[in-house]
Amino acid sequence: MSQAALYIVPTPIGNLADVSQRALDTLKQVDVIACEDTRHTGKLLSYYQIGTPTWALHDHNEQHKAEQLVTRLLEGKSIALVSDAGTPLISDPGYHLVNRCREAGIQVVALPGPCAAVTALSAAGLPTDRFVFEGFLPAKDKARHDKLESLKDEPRTMVFYESPRRLLDTVTALVEVMGEARRLVVARELTKAFETIHGLPAGDMLAWLKEDSNRCRGEIVLMVAGHKADADALPLPAQKTLALLSADLGLKKAAALTADIYGLKKNALYKHGLEAGL
Ligand code: SAM
């Protein structure tokens, strides 16, 4: 490498072709690759015929290993940090190492690349001008419920990583806390053979997921539309009627009919329909 530095190298989230030329060059040229699981990363390295030695750096040994890696970096070695998939440090180890490198005045070079959250968001059809990444929700029911309560009025699109085992419970909690009409998008198995990206109001999403257990399988990004004061002011039955009618009649006619039925403003319904992706 031209310079001793810590290189943060994103790796594919499923499709092995999703790795940049710069990432491959970096992995070939560094002295050591620090990775979560040496066997897992070994598969990527052997696919691309890269023989660089690997060191394990995972949640349980990160603080201790970070010190050893900082020593090597200070000796002039270059190190790449990868995780099992996607961008290191994004719900993955690496924070302590990067922090220690910055404290020690070691250069940190981040390469851009795959990240499940950004990939999912870019295809979801939810507003992306502002969003919040919430990582994994707490595993315990009460803590998860409390966390969702704290996010109930969040106006930005919310992005969560979710385990297939907990998806149904989380969507059930979302219906309870944020209501049936809140729009959700489930993106699963991105870049892989069974990639699915599906958006529905929370109540319908729960029913859709329950219809077929395969819909909860694999790796999952769950996205939740932000809270909108206007939309939430529309009565839920009106929102449902609008959604039902617009499937057959188109949004414009559905908004006019729903406005007549419920004595609401046509424009408000039309705007809500557009925002809900109807
Ligand atoms: N650092 C990774 C990134 O940049 O996306 C995320 C690591 S985190 C430990 C793993 C979680 O990311 C999975 O449980 C899932 O929620 C999400 N994920 C990773 N790959 C995915 C994929 N191909 N499709 C959907 N979600 C994925």
Average pLDDT works out at 94
Class per helix and strand makeup: alpha/beta
Radius of gyration: 23 Å
In CATH terms, what is the architecture of the largest domain? 2-Layer Sandwich
Bound compounds, please? S-adenosylmethionine
The portion of residues assigned to helices is 40-55%
**Strand order within the widest beta sheet:** 3-2-4-1-5
Distance between the termini: 52 Å
CATH topology of the largest domain: Methyltransferase, Cobalt-precorrin-4 Transmethylase, Domain 2
Q: Given the structure, what is the number of helices?
A: 12
CATH class designation of the largest domain: Alpha Beta
| Number of extended strands | 10
Q: Structurally, how many domains make up the residues? A: 3
What would you say this structure looks like, in words?
There is one protein chain. This protein has 278 residues and is of the alpha/beta class. The protein has three domains: 5-110, Cobalt-precorrin-4 Transmethylase, domain 1 (3-Layer(aba) Sandwich); 116-224, Tetrapyrrole methylase, C-terminal domain (Methyltransferase, Cobalt-precorrin-4 Transmethylase, Domain 2); 236-276. Helices cover 45% and strands 16% of the residues. It has a five-stranded parallel sheet, with helices on both faces. Strand 8 and strand 9 form a beta hairpin. The longest helix is centred in the C-terminal third of the chain and has 14 residues, at 236-249. The site of S-adenosylmethionine (SAM) has 23 residues, from helix 5, strand 7, strand 8 and strand 10.
